[in-house]
Write a structure and sequence with these properties.
single chain; 354 residues; alpha+beta; 8-stranded mixed β-sheet; 6-stranded antiparallel barrel; 8 helices; globular
Length: 354
């Protein structure tokens, strides 16, 4: 499965925070020939690509598999569903959207209600989440038979391919990162790498990072790569706060991230791979699983690579597939050098130049 096929397969599966099962099932299938699989009590997927020999380091490849969405909080007397958000939902894109209610008996189609412009007293107002209603076409009694409080709701949107190697889909945050670490793991499984490698696709990042916090305590890695998405350059988005699509991954610099890893990654990108790399500076926390992983136990040397993405936290997130491929090559180059026990020297010929 190539990069595009993998991203679209992962992005097309439901996995709202706390109910990531459908996305996890696809990820497990992609990893089943890579290494020993494990599912943690919080639903994270671990794949032990290579176990570390005594005295050798273990490196963690992390991306979060959950996505934003909504959760049913009430079924009113007319059968409309009331919801709250799971993660940072952009309310401005919800009105009149088609949605899917993920129930125990199967998915239900629905639509989010909207007031016609002819009747709206303020057509510039974006309703609060508690004001949003979902119509599934049922009265109260029938709705309560089909829907349970706590069922998750996702916006219905088809995945699609744009021009110049770009794709649009919901949940690319962070299924693009999941694809990157899975692709890297598939390659590493076939290489004679003298260090431990474990993939962790973590749950609940969008609601607090609980999955990452627990797996970091369990694995106790020496090094970690966290692969997520960040703001892609687009109309209305500040250039100094965003990355260019096709400009390569955005290497994070933040107090919690490891300076030596950052310096080494910059050197590899420039001197060994001659690949594009962008810098993303954060003065405080990163807002990703890196914040939880880096402070686990006695601490984990952690680097963060973000794939530039437009339209974050909407059903039409857009990325460039080339940025995923370059991210994979950069991680492989670093791991191969780490396995050699030296931060110096050239990249192994096993790495493909981009």
């Amino acid at each position: 499965m190539n990069t595009k096929e993998m991203v679209l397969a992962l992005a097309g599966a439901n996995g709202i925070s706390g109910q990531e099962g459908a996305a996890v099932q696809i990820a497990r299938h992609l990893l089943e020939q890579v290494g020993e699989l494990e599912t943690t009590p919080l639903g994270c997927v671990l794949c032990w690509v290579k176990r570390a020999a005594e005295g050798k380091p273990t490196i963690l490849l992390n991306a979060h598999i959950d996505q934003i969405g909504m959760i049913v909080t009430c079924i009113d007397e007319k059968g409309f569903l009331r919801v709250s958000n799971c993660g940072g939902v952009d309310r401005s894109v919800l009105l009149a959207a088609q949605v899917v209610v993920h129930t125990a008996s199967g998915p239900l189609e629905g639509v989010i209600c909207t007031i016609p412009p002819h009747l709206s007293p303020d057509d510039k107002k974006v309703p609060k989440m508690e004001e949003i209603c979902i119509d599934i076409g049922l009265d109260e009694a029938a709705a309560k038979q089909r829907v349970s409080l706590g069922d998750r709701v996702s916006v219905r949107m088809e995945t699609g391919e744009l021009l110049e190697g770009r794709i649009s889909a919901p949940a690319i945050d962070d299924r693009a990162g999941c694809a990157a670490v899975i692709l890297a793991a598939q390659r590493l499984a076939k290489m004679p790498v003298d260090c431990g490698v474990v993939v962790a696709l973590t749950t609940m990042e969008e609601v607090g990072g609980q999955g990452a916090r627990t797996i970091a305590q369990q694995i106790k890695p020496d090094y970690a790569f966290v692969v997520d998405v960040s703001f892609g350059r687009a109309p209305g988005v500040s250039e100094h706060k965003s990355g260019k699509l096709d400009g390569g991954p955005m290497l994070g610099i933040a107090p919690v991230l490891d300076n030596e890893m950052i310096a080494q990654l910059r050197r590899i990108a420039k001197e060994d791979l001659q690949m594009p790399l962008q810098i993303e500076v954060m003065g405080g926390s990163t807002g990703t699983d890196a914040d939880e992983i880096a402070i686990a136990g006695a601490g984990v040397r952690c680097a963060m690579l973000s794939i530039p993405q437009r339209n974050m936290h909407t059903p039409v997130e857009v990325i460039s597939l080339a940025d995923i491929d370059v991210t994979v090559e950069l991680m492989l180059a670093y791991i191969l050098q780490l396995a050699k026990g030296s931060g110096e020297g050239r990249v192994s010929e096993c790495c493909i130049r981009i």
